[in-house]
Amino acid sequence: MARVGAAGGLALCGAVGGLLAAAVVVPVAVGAGVVGNATAETFTELPPPPREEPLPELTRILDKNGTKIAQFYYQNRRSIPIGQVSRAMRNAIIAIEDARFYEHAGLDVKGTLRALVANAQAGGIKQGGSSLTQQLVKNILVNRAESERDRDSARVQSIRRKLAELRYALSLEKIYTKDEILERYLNIAYFGAGAFGVQAAAQRFFGVDAARLTLVQGATLAGAVRTPYWTDPSIGKEQQARLLERRNLVLERMEQLRMASPQEVARAKAAPLGLRMQAEGGGCGASRYPYFCAYVQAEMLTSPAFGYTEADRERRLQRGGLTLRTTLDPIAQQAAERAIAARVSPKDTEVAAEAMIQPGTGQIRALAASKHYGRNPSRATSINLPADREHGGGMGFQAGSTFKIFTLATALAKGWRFGQGFNTPGAYVPSQGFTNCAGDKVNAPNATIYNASGEGQGGPYSLELGTWKSSNIFYMMLERDVGLCDVVKTARALGVKRADGGPLAEVPTFTLGVNEMDPLTVAAAYATFGARGRYCRPIAITEIIERDGRKVSVPPSCSQAIEKPVADAVNRVLSGVFTQGTMRGQSIGRPAAGKTGTNNSYTSAWFAGYTPDLAAAVSVGDIRGSYKYPLTGVQIGDSYYGSVQGASLPGPIWVDSMQEALRETAATAFVAPDMWRFGGGYTPGLKELIKAQERKERRRERRAREREEFGDYPGYEDYGDYFDNPDPRGTPDSRDTRGNPDNRDDAGNAGRW
User: Fold this and answer.
1) Cα-to-chain-centroid distance, residue 690
2) Final residue before a domain boundary, out of 678, 709, 741
3) What is the tens place of the pLDDT at every residue in 138-147?
4) How far is it, in rounded angstroms, from Cα 216 to Cα 569?
5) Residues facing 195 on adjacent strands
6) N or C: which end of the chain has fewer CB within 10 A?
7) CA 154 to chain centre
């Protein structure tokens, strides 16, 4: 009867993947001496151990301080040495899977027969039939399989397959110590709930490292490894009940083997599972900083440094066990996120995006957007809004008057001086003087350019005044004077390319920002001036740490794109945007320079600015399509906007984020420009205009004082004209009705074309 019971147990265990048929038949036959020469050679002439491919391990992404912000994996695994696994965990796995592990040489005949009888009597799997070494071999063969078909073949239960595993197991025992075999097994085994290896399992099930696993926790994981899907606690209560039963079996076995005292086992069996299931946290959707994570992921998948083909790069990302130290600054990142969230809701169809970058290194400090990141289009977006299409972004938005900086830099490099300018007309037709870099004339005789809001005001504008007031006509004339192609070359030297990867549109309105851009590209270009003309390609990864601990530094890629004196001169002009131009009244409390940008028909709005320590660009547009849905008459966040301009929404986001991001950074001043080279310019009629404006300002101040002093007197309003202009003949001030740039709302309108 015992023989019949053993046969029944063999059939049962074979059906559920437990006991190996070959482990009973072959060793007994060998021991009885009834096998032929071929069978004997099977165990005397062993093959080399199975080839071990590197285990798929998770890739970790760290911020600049070394804190993990994301991870990628094909299998959630982090291999650790045996010394980092608690003694309780080691004892538990040996007790339930291979009690004679330290006694046999890879094949435990006695243990196999005992497991056969125990499992048959229990009517299920109570003890393992294969040694840990045999189980390790099977896992190695599955791991190195190139296809699902190969993996299924490695798992199939057959005499031939089991004989091969036995021979491999004996070979492994010859080259590895027992602790080395146990270490390999604990790192390769699957424990359920997406956790491969004991470290990932300890983190996933209990939120602790493997070194801190207790008796209860170790027994739980040891109980899960035999049937990880059947006892997966992340599925539901039924699976958790099975896991509890398996845990208690492990504890009983540990008591039988005197690995734990009866009192310890009793207390452990009375305790609940104590699960503290942790999120798997794979991919950018699970990252706290998803837009930056998506940029890093795209860098890995597109850079030849991570593999010759995209398939190689993806395999390395998912399986390589890399640690990537990145440039992300949590302070800057959270500052950008808070500034955006304070003004733009994730539910809005209008989206705000911001990129922050360090001048002189190109290190990306923050990438943020108002939309949640994810795959559900009704609640989130999978478009990396602060970045270009190459890094998961979209088509971008027209950059508007932020492009005037390239014309300004070109003019100063070609000898223009502060104070130099034109007497501009009220409207401008670019009918001649524009040639692209291919040598083709690209004039637009059918286009008419106006200043902001379609105003037809002309008059004298210098470099400074034309920039501060963002005069479109002045900048069209300046671009024609210095050469369209040279302006395009300046932009390209500063890394400017369209967000969609297409060629730049080299047209007369290039300086007015007709090309669609992404915030990171614009921020990197502006950072060049904060670094005194040193352009650095945006960089997100500073160090790659291989799974074996080898470190590879990723240096910045920089070049002197603009002369230092020219950059200093640009900084002086753009600093005035905060004191006398479109951002007047908005300040970050330290030296800064920047430019607003509002596009034709209010299709999008921008602000880009910088200090010597940090640069940032903010864009706002409708995610459904900027041309179809202009930023007019819109409710964004808690505010209503008749029209969104660069200074009304992107500007305040930039100010708040920069103040917060730089709160722990000492202020750095810009280098003063070389006035011998850049001073002394002349603009016809500008001096006279300025004097007239000063007289008007004095008149306004005088009338304000008179109102305060005489406003309560009866009949004051009847004499208002006298107080305003006591000379009945009329002064030059009262007779001056010529339009001028001060008659419009600078902050509201500048930057639009």
Assistant:
1) 49
2) 678
3) 888 888 765 5
4) 70
5) 76, 192
6) N
7) 38
Domain assignment present for residue 618? The answer is yes
Average pLDDT over residues 459-484: 96
- Which domain range does residue 237 map to? 76-270
Q: In 3D, which of 517, 502, 484, 506 has the Cα closest to residue 401?
A: 517
**Cβ 410 vs Cβ 482: under 8 Å:** yes
Determine contact, residues 326/62, Cβ cutoff 8 Å.
Answer: yes
321 CB-near residues (< 8 Å, 6+ apart):
54, 55, 56, 57, 58, 59, 77, 78, 79, 546, 547
- Whether 1 is covered by a domain: the verdict is no
pLDDT-derived band at 163, boundaries 50, 70, 90: confident
State the DSSP string of 256-300.
HTTSS-HHHHHHHHHS-----PPP---SGGGSSSHHHHHHHHHHH
How far, in Å, CA of 35 to CA of 17, rounded? 27
Q: Quote the tokens at residue 70.
A: 């994301």
Q: Does any domain span residue 685?
A: no
Whether 475 and 511 have beta carbons less than 8 Å apart is answered as: yes
- Cβ 421 vs Cβ 462: under 8 Å: yes
What is the per-residue pLDDT across 191-238, written as a single tens digit (0 to 9) for each?
Answer: 999 899 999 999 999 999 999 999 999 999 999 999 898 999 999 999
Instruction: Mark 638-662 as b/e (b = at least 16 C-beta within 10 Å).
Output: eeebebbbbbbbbbbbbbbbbebbb
How big is the chain, counted in residues?
Answer: 753
pLDDT given for residue 750 in this prediction: 34
Residue 104 maps to a domain = yes
In the chain, count H helices and then E strands: 28, 20
Query: What letters, b where the CB count within 10 A reaches 16 and e where it falls short, cover 195-223?
Result: bbbbbbbbbbbbebbbeebbbbbbbbbbb
CATH number for the domain that contains residue 457: 3.40.710.10
**610, 644, 678 — which closes off a domain?**
678
Report the domain count for the chain: 2
Sequence-separated contacts (24+) of 370-378 with Cβ below 8 Å: 370/340, 370/341, 370/344, 370/345, 370/346, 371/346, 371/623, 372/346, 373/284, 373/285, 373/290, 373/291, 373/294, 374/285, 374/290, 375/285
Q: Say which residue the tokens 């080279």 belong to.
A: 677
